[in-house]
Specification:
Number of helices: 4
Number of strands: 10
Shape: globular
Low-confidence stretches: none
Distance between the termini: 51 Å
Strand content: 25-35%
Radius of gyration: 17 Å
CATH architecture of the largest domain: 2-Layer Sandwich
CATH class of the largest domain: Alpha Beta
CATH superfamily of the largest domain: ANL, C-terminal domain
CATH topology of the largest domain: GMP Synthetase, Chain A, domain 3
Largest sheet: 4 strands, mixed
Helix content: 10-25%
Structural class: alpha+beta
Mean pLDDT: 86
Number of domains: 2
Amino acid sequence: MLGYWQRPDETADVMRGEWFVTSDLAELDEDGYLTYHGRADDVMNAMGYRVSPVEVEDALAGTPGVAEVAVSTLDVGDGVSLVCAWVVPSDPEADREALQRSVIDRAAERLAPYKRPREVRLVEALPRTANGKIVRRSLAAAAAPSPGGGKRADE
C-alpha cells in the first residue's frame, strides 16, 4: 500500500504497522458471507443517536416512485440535526406530496423511530464524485427544500 496520493498525514493516520486500516464497516457471518454496512465516517448523529445512512437507504430503496435515495443529516439549528432523505423521483411529474408521504410511510414500516427520516426532499439528481459515489456532505447544499418546504414526518 502506497497510501493516499500526496497526503502523507492522512496515510499515517490509517496505517497500523503494515496494515492499512479503512473506515469501512463490514460483518462476516457464520456462513462466511460478508455484509458491507458503509463507512464509519458516514455514520450520522441525529438527535443524539448514531445512524447508518446505508441502513436507512436500504430500507427506503424500492419505495414505489423512487429512482434513487440518499440519506444524511440536516442541521436544523442550535446543534440539532435530523435524518433527511433526498429522493430522485422515477417520474418527475408525479405528485410530490404523495411521494414524500410514501417514503415516510415506508420508513415507519421498516425502521426504528430514531432512524427514520424526519424530512424528505425531492431532487433532480444526487451529487456524485467523478467515479459515481454519492457525496453526502453536499446533499444539503445541493438541494434546497421542495417548493413549500420539504415534507416533514410530523406533518
